[in-house]
Fold these 3 entries.
Entry 1:
Amino acid sequence: PEIKEAMDLCISCKGCKSECPSNIDMATLKAEFQYQYYKGKSRSLRDKLIANNAKLNRIASKLSGVHNILINQVWFKRIMGIAKERSLPKLEPQTLRSWFKSHGQKSSSKKVYFFCDEYTNYYDIEIGKKAILLLNKLDYEVLMVDHRESGRAYISKGFLDQAKQIAIANINTFKNLVSKDTPLIGIEPSAILSFRDEYINLVDKSLKNEAFNLSESVFLIDEFLANQIEEKQITSDSFNKESKAILLHGHCHQKALSTTNSTKKILSLPMNYIVDEIPSGCCGMAGSFGYEREHYNLSQKIGNQVLFPAIKKANENTILVANGTSCRHQIYDKFHKEAKHPVDVLFEALY
C-alpha cells in the first residue's frame, strides 16, 4: 500500500530517465507496479476507459457531435473522476485515416511510412494533415498502412498484457517494411518513441532483436526533418523570410529518449525564425494525470514551476510551440491560448 501511495504521485513523464544521476526510469517501474498490484483486483471505470481510449474513440467518432457534448458535461466529469476545471479533448468528425484515403499525392523516390497514432487520428487531425502535406511539399511520398495504436494509454495505466500484444503486432507490421532508407515517422512523442523504449522491453526474447533493429529506423518527425536538413535534402529555400519569435516547450519523452535539439533545428530552418526553449520539466499534464480530479492541483503546481511563468512573460506575438498533445492541452486550459505543433509552424512558413 505504501508503494502504491508513492507511485500514485509519479506522473510517468520519464524525466527521471535523463535527469536523474542514476537514470532511473520510474515511469516503467510504475507501469510494472500497477500491472503486478492489480492482478486479481478490479480496476476503476476511469482506468479502464482511459486505457481503452483508442477502442472507444473508434466507436465514438461515428457520433462525434454527441460525444463532444457528453464528455464536457459536469455530471460526466464527476462520474469519471475528471477535474471540473478541465476541458476534455474533442473528436473531429473525420479521422486522419479517412482523410488520407482520399488524399492524392505524387510518387517520389523519397518515401516515409507515417505512424498514425491514436491521438493524431482522432484528436489532432489537422496537425496530422499538415505533417503529411508538409512532407509532400518537401518531395516525400507518405505511406500509411493498417497498424495498431501505440498502446501508450495501456502502458501508462499498467495494462501490460494488452500493451504487449500491441507491441508485437506493430513490430510484426513494420519490421519488413521500414528501413533507414524508408523510415517510420510519427508526430506524437509518447506514441512513436514507444518503438524505441517500451516495445523492446515488452516483447519476448524471440522478438527483441527485431524490435531493436526496427527502433533504429523509427523517428519523431522533428528528428527525421532535422536529419534531412543535415543531409541537405531540405533547405531554407522552401520557406518564407518573415521574422518570427518562437517559444518552445519540449516533451518529456523526447528529452528522455532523444533531444529537443532536432525540434529547435527545424523551427530555425526558416531564415528569420528565432527559437527560445523554455527550461521546463514536465508541463504537469502527463497524459491522463492532469485530468484526474485528485491530481489537478498538483498538475497546476508543476506547470507553475517554470512553464506557466515563462508563457506569462512572453510577448503576445511570440509563437508558442509544444509537440505533445497533453502539453498543448495543459497550456490551453490554463491560458486559453493555442500552442502549435512544430509541423504547424513549418507548414505555415512554406512558400
Note: The chain has a mean pLDDT of 96.
Entry 2:
Amino acid sequence: FPILYTNDVHTYIDKKSPKLTYAAIAALKQSHIANGENVLLVDAGDHIQGTAYGSMDDGTTIIQLMNAAGYDAATPGNHEFDYGMDRAKELMADADYPYLSCNWVNLPLNNRVLSDVKYFRIGGRTIAFVGITTPESFTKSTPTYFQDANGNYIFGFCEGNNGADLYKAVQKAIDAAKAAGADYVIGLGHLGIDEQSSPWMSKEVIANTTGFDAFIDGHSHTVMENKQVYDAAGKAVTLTQTGSYLANVGKMTIAEDGAITTELISTADVSDAAVAATAEAW
C-alpha cells in the first residue's frame, strides 16, 4: 500500500496544474481510495509559514487545506512556531490529523507536548509513525517563544549531550511502537541532512538507533528519493525527502513481502474540486 508524503511546503499553494497543489495531492490520495487501496498522507513539517498565504492569517487557511486534502499525520517543523507558541498550539489543535513529536518536551512538567507515535492498522499490518522535531527550532524560529516571561526555557527538544538525548528519546518511541505490535516503524522527522544540523541530522538519528524501517524527512529541502542509511544494528533504512515548495510529492510503497520502495512525483494533472475551491477563494 502507498504512503504519500510532503515536507517544507512553506505555503506555496498557488501553483497551476500540472504542477503540484494541495488539490492535486488530495486527488492522488482519492484515486488510490477509488481503486480500493489503503493509502496514508503525511507531512514532515514547515507548512504554515513561507509566503504571504501563511502570514495573512497566521496559518489558518493552510491547516484548512491540509484538513481538506485528508492528511493523516504530521510532525511540527521549526517554522510551525513562527507565529508564537500559543498560535502553534492552536493550529495543531485545529488540525483534523495528529501532530507527532517524541522529543518536544514541556520542561517544568517533564512530559511530551504531543503524542510520540501514531498507529495505523492497514490490511492486517500495523504501521507506526514516530514524529521528531529538530532541536534547531530554538534558533531557526524565535527563542523567546520557548521561554517564560523571565527568559527561562520551558520547552525543549531533547537537544543535550551531543545528540545522545535525542537518540534516546527516538529509541524509546521506536521501542514503544514495537512493543505495541507495530510491523513497520517509520520516522516522520523534521531534521534534514545539512551538516550544520549535526548532531541532529536524520542520518545521525538513524545511525544511532535501531528499529526504523524507513524515514520521511524534512528541514534541509533535499531532493532525496531513496538514500540508504545503516542503523546501529547494520540494517539499511530508506531515507527520503521531497525537496521543498511542493516540487515533489513522495510515494512510499510497502509491498506484500515487506519491501519498501520510494518515488518522487513532480507533476499531477488531477485536482480535488473542494480543495481547489478553498485555495482559489483564498
Note: The longest helix spans residues 164-179.
Entry 3:
Amino acid sequence: MRLISCYIANFGLHHDKKIDFNPGLNSFYWKNGEGKTTLTVFIKAMLYGFGDNRSDTERAKYLPWQGGKYGGSLTFEAGGKAYVVERTFGKKQAEDTFVLRDEKTGGVSNSYTENLGFELFGIDREGFMRTAFLSEKSITTADRIT
C-alpha cells in the first residue's frame, strides 16, 4: 500500500489543502501548531473512519474550525491499483459517508469496504497509530542521526 495524495476539505485547522506524497518515507517539518498531528489523524480517519460516538473524542476535536464539509479524500495504491477513498463526517457516526472509487475510471469500487484500514493492514485504528506515526516526543537524542 502506498499513499499518493490527500485532499482535506475541512478537518481541524486544515481547509482546502492538497498534499502529494512521495514514494518511500515522507517527513513533515511544520512548525508547532501547523497541523502535523491533525494530518496523521486525517489519514487514520480516511482509512478507518471514526469510532462509535461513545468512545471517540477525535470526532469532536477535529470538527472543522472554520465550519464547512467535514472530511476529504485519500488517494492510495494497493495491489497494483489506485483508489480514492472519500469520507465525510457528521457529529454522529450515523451521519458519516464512505465511497471508494477506482482512481483511473472514477467509478465506485467494491474492492474494499468501510473497514479499509483493517482490510489493508490487518490492524485496528489504534494499532495503526502505534505503527505508522512517530511523534517528536517519542524520539530521544540517542535515536537521532547526526
Note: The first strand starts at residue 2 and ends at 11.
